Amino acid sequence: MIAGSIAGMVEHMAMFPVDTIKTHMQAIGSCPIKSVSISHAFRSIIKTEGTAGLYRGIAAMGLGAGPAHAVYFSVYETCKKRFSGNNPNNSLAHAASGVCATVASDAVFTPMDMVKQRLQLGNNTVYRGVLDCVKRVFREEGIGAFYASYRTTVLMNAPFTAVHFATYEAAKKGLAEISPDSANDESLIVHATAGAVAGALAAVITTPLDVVKTQLQCQVSYLCYWF
């Protein structure tokens, strides 16, 4: 749980500016302009809010990512041991374990992810911070707004984690077979390479649902004037 929590917070907070740009690109589809480039989204954020705009909502990410990833990796490791039996290379067990981990962690992360995305898409006149966003959403839209995208998130993350962990474990095994002397199970390069391959493949498959999730979580009509 500790390792997963630290890994999740470092991962999400290090990549937060990229996540902000991605969120803006996904949300703009509800405006008259149906798509923008990465550079266009980046310039719009910098022009409107400066560099700080790339980090709006990072506090919500930190508050949600830690507990969610603690749940995620602890459930994954527990299920992997139970499902794998005597076969540590069972890809089906790895995929099923990832799905179980997703269902559990998304229940923890979805509310703060909604807050994070609304802060990313708004300027200081919309929400003053994490607490203000939580209070206003609860007062104006009710508790259901925090979980509006939960089913879509699970539908997105279940195949993502199934593909991710199955590919990750297979890639680790393949790298170890290619170079058994240097690519042991605890090698940093093995974890980094296998994780990059697995994450890229899973993202290609699930990005369309990620767009749906973003638009469910956010009221984005006030963004149109940015672009």
UniProtKB/TrEMBL annotation:
The keyword Repeat is assigned to this record: yes
Subcellular location(s) per record: Mitochondrion membrane
Recorded GO MF terms: ferrous iron transmembrane transporter activity
Gene Ontology cellular-component annotations: mitochondrial membrane
Cross-referenced InterPro entries: MCP, MCP_dom_sf, MCP_transmembrane
Pfam families cross-referenced by the UniProt entry: Mito_carr (PF00153)
Keywords, in A-Z order: Membrane, Mitochondrion, Repeat, Transmembrane, Transmembrane helix, Transport
The Solcar repeat ranges on this chain: 1-82, 89-174, 186-227
Biological processes annotated in GO: iron import into the mitochondrion
Keyword Mitochondrion attributed: yes
Major localisation: mitochondrion
Topology relative to the membrane: Multi-pass membrane protein
PANTHER family: MITOCHONDRIAL SUBSTRATE CARRIER FAMILY PROTEIN (PTHR45758:SF11), MITOFERRIN-1-RELATED (PTHR45758)
Family note: Belongs to the mitochondrial carrier (TC 2.A.29) family.
Name the record gives this protein: Mitoferrin-like
UniProt organism field: Linum tenue
